[in-house]
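fwd from M.: "can u put these together and see what the complex looks like"

so here's what she sent:
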Amino acid sequence: MNNYQVPKGTKDVFGEEITKWHKIEDLIKQFTYVYNYTEIRTPIFEHTEVFKRGNDSSDMVNKEMYTFIPANSSTSITLRPEGTAGVARSFVENKMYGNTDLPAKLYYVGPQFRHESPQKGRLRMFNQFGIECIGAKNPLLDVEAISLGYSFVAAIGLQDLKVLLNTLGDDESRANYREALKEYFKDEISNMCPDCQRRYIQNPLRILDCKVDAHKPIMNNVPKMSDYLNEESKAYFKQVCDGLDALDIPYEIDDRLVRGLDYYTHTVFEVVSENSAMGSQCTIFAGGRYDGLVEYFGGPACSGIGWAMGIERLLLACEGEGIELAEEANLDAYVLCLSKNANIHAFKVLNELRANGYRSETDYLDRKFKAQFKSVERYKATVAIMIGDKDIENGTVTIKRIADQKQFVIKFEELITTMDEIFGETDEHAHTCNCGNEGCTCGEHDHSTNE
RNA sequence: GCGAUUGUGGUGAAGUGGUUAACACAACUGGUUGUGGUCCAGUCAUUCGUGGGUUCGAUUCCCAUCAGUCGCCCCA
């Protein structure tokens, strides 16, 4: 009993669903094009150290990675849990800091892997569209990145969105803040959740993220990042805010927003959907600025900004807001075969149609005429082309335009010109021949209306 | 990793410790042998996620397992 099924947290995408993906992918190409981002395709697995760096405190790195050592190897490999690290690695490895106009503006689309418990909006293999802009530190680039993502989701039609923004400041500001937090939680930490006790040591900022302790009184008067920013960090953040204002991008400053990945500095943001269809996973895209990553991979000191968008979540949000992305698979022509003898002739017609770019299909199940006609309907074919014994004798085919039920018997040689006429028309009724005879296919008359 | 809940044909979905597993949709066939959508009739689950156990007998009860869904957590 072979009961094969997809691994937990993965899914097959096909049929109508895949047309939604194509639509999204087309839009990604359009938006990245005008913002002058180019695509990068990095491996979906990397050496484990690319993701597991230093004292990374994130769950993603510590608990959720697909890490393995392949047979006949001693090198630890990890399926990428996120896109930024691989891009930063590639930026350094390919010496993009020297070869390209900086900043390098790169985007990627592809699967990411995290071993989590699946639920709505959370899969073990999921797809992200992400951008990374590396090699320049300018608040306008932070704004540009947010603008690209925001206008992208806005173009799709999403409305129940909220942009959350915060700054973590530079190293100095963050170090001061970290000390302030440690001091603040010093006496209380032993009463807090085990995760927070770990965070207290590894990365106190993330205590702010904690949901377990969120309601405790101690959380009410937590020192604010904004009080510990040095002048430079404050000025940087102000320029980001000013830029967003200038582009009319609405946002809320959320001083608890610290993000789960440890490499962020300065700007961090999260764009969430407030639609009820989202369940508890409501972040559509999120990211921020990172300063140390390029150096970590052995490159020069280079700042970057980027974000990643969960495509499955984007699709969920679209569904929730009633945005229809699926495209109907309309056929141009369905070829009906009316007798066994006509089989090969019908097949030739089919081939001729396809050679001329018409999306065509026929019946391969030897179904009755009636059943074949149902396929015409199901495929929403523009025309039905019928071929039977009579047509074989006469060298003709019968072509029926479904929209107006008009039907013509034409010579096989006229097939494509007739199709071109039908499909070339912009006016629905232009094909009706001026000679007055219904269904006229004489080909002698001029079928254009303005003559 | 923890908790809750679900799992019956292509789809939706009833149901029972006893064997013909409702009904609807879809599909196919015929009425209508070269013209679809309507109508009528017929056909379509040796099987109830998978594996064990209890039982004379399990789709039904029990256990395990896999998967879905929803929370926690985490994050896109």
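replying to her w this: The longest strand of chain A covers residues 104-113.
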